[in-house]
Amino acid sequence: MEATRQLFWNTNGKGLMYFLALISFVIFIFGCSKKIRNWLQGRPIGYDDLGLRFITFFSDIIKHDKEIFFGTFRRFMHLVVFYGLIMLTIGTSVIAIQDHFGIPLFYGMNYLILSLLMDLFGLMTMIGIGMATYKRYIYKLDHEDYTLDDALLLILVFLILITGFILEGLRIYATNDPWAWWSPVGLAFSELIRISGLSVLSALTGYAILWYFHMLLALGFIAYIPYSKLFHMFASALNIFLKPSSPFRGLTLVNNISKEGKNLGVARLEDFTQKQLLELDACISCGRCQKGCPANISGSPLSPRVVIRNLKRYSIQMNSFFKNKDKADNHSIIDNVIAKETLWSCTTCGLCEDKCPIQIEHIKRIVDMRRSLITESWGYQPEVQKVFQNISQSGNPWGLRLDVKYLAEVSQVPLLNEKKQTDILYWVGCFGSYESRNMKVSQVMFKLLEKAGVDYAILGREEKCCGDSVRRLGNERLFQQLALENVYNLNQYKFKTIVTHCPHCYNTLKNDYPQFGGHYRVLHHSEYILELIKSGVLELKVANNLRVNYHDPCYLGRYNSIYNAPRDVLSSIPGLELVEMKNNRAKALCCGAGGGRIWMEDIKEHTTNSILVINAQKNEADILASACSLCLTTLSDAVKTMDSELICQDIAEIVYNAL
Ligand code: SF4
Ligand code: SF4
Fold it and tell me: I want to staple 579 with a disulfide (CB 3.0 to 4.6 A). Which of 39, 377, 482, 619 is the partner?
């Protein structure tokens, strides 16, 4: 006799099942299409490299890439549930195909192997559900926040699986199934039923009743998917597939910026891109983005997770059958859904994006909403408006006139408009040119370049603010003016490499200016100083018992993956002991100054710079080192306020002192 089992054994509910399955699928399709319609309300954007995207996507999903699923426990839990549900769907589909189309798929070895796989994968899914329950409700992580929907999903999947195993156990027990060993979990249940002393007649009755319950649960589950968090299995996967191919957190270029009355940002739901609307459904509300967010740590109203959650709720409200049409048409997101203070709080540090398993782009969303504040004149703080005015009139945030002599106190700094060409163009940056603490760093850089005999020059008064803060604050119009002017000036001259000591200038010149025709070889001073040390032109003396704690600047590390160069520079100094922050490299805590926050008066209320100082003190460091103008400013402020004995220095200063 060929191995198989009778489909719809001991039940006459087949007709009802097909009818309810139809209803369930209609509800499922309706829910999915509603979501897709909501996404399509946004602005379309193009996606490059579709082939490469497919390859990366499938390898990420199949392997459950560890970049996406942080931690072995979480990865294993997701793996078993994911593959378990896929296997159970395949098995159920095979049964449906045989029953509906009469194709004999569920016979012989096929039947035995499929029975075994469905049992084992069902068991794996149960283990995964147990792990998820443990993680969510016993080993609760402080940043994770679960709703009734999460609990309901776990209960539903558990009930479907357990009733499925009990049904299998009852069938094996009542039929004395000769192939029961190929369904080991069902066999175990049948043994339990046997031990319980249940009669065969009761088993048959129990089976007939439980079958309806199992069927209703399974079909209800399918219908519920688009209305529950489980819909993330489609939305998150699509979002990961559509993730930006550029390696940095680049902002969207606004074309035709000079067009009068053009809306440059996002003020209403439909101003978002289709992907940004998809992200609202892709978010699994895990809260990892919130943990470590400098704004959130400092007690400001920003939580990246809550931004997504509130926008999602608003989108559901606006797309519901009962929406108020006038309200939907006229209502703006800003202050109605997301407060301006929330938008201002973001330092664009990128930690949230680095931690998000779904690769949701928070920074673009926040900057896009900030951009609408400029267009609609809804309000920048007076101090930010003053910075815009100064930059627009004088090319720097303080509205100062550059004193090249002061900058070059110790030497005659060559100007590029006199030399016309040079090997190294040192981009001094606004802080390096006008802010007293950072001017010391530029002076040290001049000395290092001269000591190394480098052919270099600066732009002097031709160097305008690179526009990093301006762009991240949302003033795209002013940013584009600055970018075009700087690119025009740079393109007049011949130089091989731009070196800058500020990672914000570095990132703008390297990653933003190509959008405006500026394609340059840009090096951060940590990379260039390392080249000089390695080539032997800078010889370093022993720095006895110097303990240095290096802090990773966000725009150098997370944005541009430069983690080793500054460490290698410091480690080249004999006798220097390099110590690390508790959270370093990609996990480094932001000092609180990026994204234009440095220009807002309430930055003093922020605490992350103090946390960094405390961490360095715990490490018993002599020097808190950084490689960023903004970090140096905020960390020096914190050291002063806290009356700490720590010395804050740029890595160039530490190198110079070791010559
Ligand atoms: S945005 Fe990403 S990290 Fe934040 S809650 Fe959503 S899925 Fe989690
Ligand atoms: S970029 Fe930084 S400050 Fe902004 S939301 Fe993300 S973690 Fe918070």
Answer: 619
